[in-house]
Amino acid sequence: MRDSTRLLRPGPIFRRGRSALVAAVAAGLLLAGGAASPAASASPADDAAGSAGARPGTPVPVQLLSITDLHGYFGDYTTTVPGARAGEPARQVGGGAYLTAHLKQRQAGQRNSILFSAGDDFSGWPNETGWFWNEPTIEYLNSIGLDFSTVGNHEMDRGYEFLRHMDDGTCRWRPDNDICFTDSTGRRFHGADYDYYSGSLVDDRSGKPKLPPYHVEYVSDGRGGRLPVGFVHATTKLMSEEQMSYTPEGFDFLDEADTVNKYAAVLRRQGVRAIVAVIHEGFSQQSGAGYDECVNPFGPMVDANARITPDVDAIVTGHWHALVNCMLPDPAGNPRPVVEAANHGRLFNEINLQLDPRTGEVLRDRTTSVNHANTQDVTPDPETLRIADYWRAELAKRSNLPVARVTADLTRAPGDSAESTMYNVTADAFLWAANRDGRADLAVAMPGILRRDVRYAADPANPADVPGRVLFSELALGTVYDSGIGVGLVRGDVTGAQLDQLLESQWQQAADGTVTYRQMAVSDNVRYRYDLSRPVGDRVDPGSVRIGGKPLRLGSTYRIATLANNFFAKNATPGFTALFEARKQDRSLYNGGDALWRYLERMSPVRLPALDRATPALSR
């Protein structure tokens, strides 16, 4: 990210931040290719508290504090978690200000405390973060002193350039320059004060990691020296295996356990003996168990743990939003923590390691792990409250910005059972946006993706509204399904035959023979006829389909754009399967909500589109 050439060096990657100077001193040993002494030298002033004198042979404590899957939930948020143990009462939790307070309390008095995330920091649901492109989340994580983060699948929601923006603060991400907002201090967005890592996110041609795959943190040994703690990082391989909507063109995601083993071996060769794996892939446990228990654990990371080298002393996971805290045997039979601390700041995990001061090895029998609930019984952190208040106020201002005018109501059909003005405009918006940063021949808007209409009349509850005026909040905030979490537009290549199959999917027959019609809007450059007298699956006349005025050719290739979740089976609109095999998928920088907003803004004043894109054969 900041310097991808660092991956070519023979030694570990050192992050910027509070230990960078000490890391640079030790790097002289490690980057020379030789094994480093576990206790790297430091100046007498480097650790005044530590030089006060730990006894020789006294284990060196290291506190690992971690969160995962925050998804931008650092503002007001209240929910519950079960008790720490089965049968204990549920606990009220949530809110970034409480999370900050708990983290500070746990860090107090700790000489060696490392705070990190297992990924999915942003691309969250709260509007005050999502509609400033999660820049507020980075401000919050900077404010709590996050040391580093592993890349999750949502870090790639809008492609590698989006992640570069969040990490480096580059302001060249969006084609409409809606980016780099002013933060709560009056400063322009500058990116994360910490680094993102992943060894399994690789270029699909060279096979080389696009980010640093591992790094070393240095901790005080209490006697004026430092000990290395290595971290290896991986992102869920399901980004490739299941063609999740977040996978950008040109990248691949390797097996997590293989990735960890590869870079753990590199760290061992360089003299690092304490190694932690941070993996954005998860696991869970038996329903009804407590958040600090491990009852019949299951899932990918249970299987991966059995394959990950015993050189790794702890595994911190994410992705599943699960509440589980295990000590599982490594392949040599020695227990090690394998943990996941929920999501949205409901929990955080604390692993306490004890290092042998002579060798730097983790004393496994002294390792402890606990999941802590982010309870609301502490004084909320005032700095976090200030940041959250600022972004809520900014959202309120943005929500009332007029962005377009309409000449009449844009409405949906009841049950999406007919062509409608709201869906036609949305399909047009998708095609327009898809061609702003890529190319598409047509676009479709699937049934069920729109949550409301756009009305000509003023909202009587909003004094900022007037007839015909459309506000930002009416388009961008919740109009298109899931637009706030980064479910963006994806383009892919389909054959004419697959496109014909997609049109036929609008009629779906149940086991009892009943047929349901769910209208799929097509962009204005598409026309076709259908015949209800024909059987389901053969109602669209392929010879009637026109794209850009030209007849559909079943063997030709067409580039189609729609919301990402319809390109893969997991979250697709039921019954619409023709896009599952779309090739050469790539992701637009627009999602559904901002595509609609920017399109109507450009077309203002917006007139009703004609309802003539799909016509019955009898009307000829």
From TrEMBL:
Keyword rRNA processing assigned: no
Residue span, 5'-Nucleotidase C-terminal domain: 403-572
Domain Calcineurin-like phosphoesterase: 65-322
Signal sequence bounds: 1-42
Superkingdom, natural source: Bacteria
InterPro entries linked to this entry: 5'-Nucleotdase_C (IPR008334), 5'-Nucleotdase_C_sf (IPR036907), 5_nucleotidase/apyrase (IPR006179), Calcineurin-like_PHP (IPR004843), Metallo-depent_PP-like (IPR029052), TAT_signal (IPR006311)
A Pfam family: Metallophos
Annotated keywords: Hydrolase, Nucleotide-binding, Signal
Family, as annotated: Belongs to the 5'-nucleotidase family.
Protein name per UniProt: Bifunctional metallophosphatase/5'-nucleotidase
